[in-house]
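Hi R.,

Here's the chain you asked about this morning:
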Amino acid sequence: MPTRQGVSPSCVSLPAGNWPTITDFLVQRFPAISRELWLARMAGGELIDEFGEAVTATRPYRGHMRLYYYRTLPPETRIPFDEELLYQDEHLVVVDKPHFLPVTPSGHYLQETLLVRLKNRLGITGLSPLHRIDRETAGLVLFSVQPKERAAYQDLFRQRDVRKGYEAIAPWRADLTFPRVCISRIVEGQPFFRQTEVAGPANSETHVDLMEVSGSLARYHLSPVTGKKHQLRVHMYALGLPIVNDRMYPPLDPTPDDNYHLPLQLLAQSIAFDDPVTGQARHFQSARRLDLPPAP
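And the predicted structure, written out as tokens:
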């Protein structure tokens, strides 16, 4: 199935089982999607198997096969910030992401994601993110243009051959000395979307340095060696330096909704690496900046 409005089709694998029809399996597998919606997709030819054959409402179930379909969501409210295209060639696309915009579709975000916006804007159906930053974080995101080159670029991140620099605005503490290194074990916490530090072998490392102080706040430079989810936010919180406008660390219950006037003060500011395809030394910098309030 081709990309539609910048969105690639979703895939579901059919396990071994004895459901009477494929429809019965889908209704049980996806309880949030009504039988009526699946039937409407089938009637519109929007559900096919891996052989390109349309799935009908009464088609008997057969396991060990893949189905493809398009996700549908209610109309999305536009996130009122624009991405900035910093660089594009036949290998890479580099984008300056605004706060609040997810990188890829998930949950109730589909069209209002950086990936789908770029596919619609640039017309590159094979575009794929090489790494991700949090929805709340602004700054640099790199995309691969050629699917056959994607693995070579992703290996750079897996092998930690990419040098990433972040900036954050957070409280200043006179009792802490910098630079310093934060090393800990980060695992999924409760609820699942929050991370937490626990005892055990370390799986995360961040280098933190102080850039400037203004009153009770300071600008910090953060260099992550590893790439655990929410790593920078967790490490800053553990130092007693929660990033300004962080809605998760310290944990709040319930987590507040987005407030576009209070973006998380965390910016993916720079990224550098040796290009595995062209051999070039690559270095990109965000055009965005976090504003450190003047001292009172």
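The longest strand covers residues 204-214.

Let me know if you need anything else.
M.
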